Amino acid sequence: MDANIFQVYEEEIQSLEEEINLLAEKYEESQQESTVFSNEEILKSIKSFQREFQGESKGHESSPNLKAQLESVESDLSFIMKFTGIQFTSHVKKTVEKTRDRTVQKHRLSGKFNFLSFQLEFQLLEMQNKESVSAVITDLSITVESEQDLDVSKFVSSTEEHGCLLSFFRSLSSYAEWYEHRRRTFQHFK
């Protein structure tokens, strides 16, 4: 048995020596290939790299344009918030899946409308064809904090079934407006 163990070790040592020799040959070949380039070729590749790098940095020079776009978007958002009365307090977006023609993003959106606080969670599925991009809202979950939970829960559950955010904001707007009218009316009679 001792002879068999030595035989196995001898074969393993021989295998490792062959592997070391093969790796040493590959290393020498790679060293020779790297010295084949002339100084002119090295300078050309450095110059082309510098040109590419300068081209990329020129794209960053348009930051004043980006700042102007950001200010424009902020002013548009401010106008929409004043016009609709909806104030968004937070938004979290997470990409769940992304392929060449399909993107799935998970969104969490919180905000207030008059006295009502709301939170939306949904997934946005974007499919891209050669001609167009289509987006579908899935897994819509709505939470509205209200004193009148029974009234609100009816249109919230309906909106969750249909997955239509536009109808949610319209219904929320209408509900809040009429709730305020009812509150003032009851205050008048008290």
Describe the protein.
The protein is of the alpha+beta class and 190 residues long. It has two domains: 1-34; 85-189, no CATH class. It is built from five helices and four strands; from the N terminus they run αααββββαα. It has helices at 2-35, 39-60, 63-84, 149-162, 165-189; strands at residues 86-98, 102-113, 116-128, 133-145. The chain has a four-stranded antiparallel β-sheet. Strand 2 and strand 3 form a beta hairpin. Helix 4 (149-162) packs antiparallel against helix 5. The model has no long low-confidence stretch (mean pLDDT 77).
Radius of gyration: 33 Å
Number of strands: 4
Number of domains: 2
Estimate the strand proportion: 25-35%
Shape: elongated
Write out key terms for the chains shown.
single chain, 190 residues, alpha+beta, 2 domains, four-stranded antiparallel sheet, 5 helices
Question: How would you summarize what this structure contains?
Answer:
By secondary structure, the protein is of the alpha+beta class.
Blueprint (SSEs and pairs):
Blueprint: H1 2-35, H2 39-60, H3 63-84, E1 86-98, E2 102-113, E3 116-128, E4 133-145, H4 149-162, H5 165-189
Antiparallel strand pairs: 1-2, 2-3, 3-4
Helix pairs in contact: 4-5
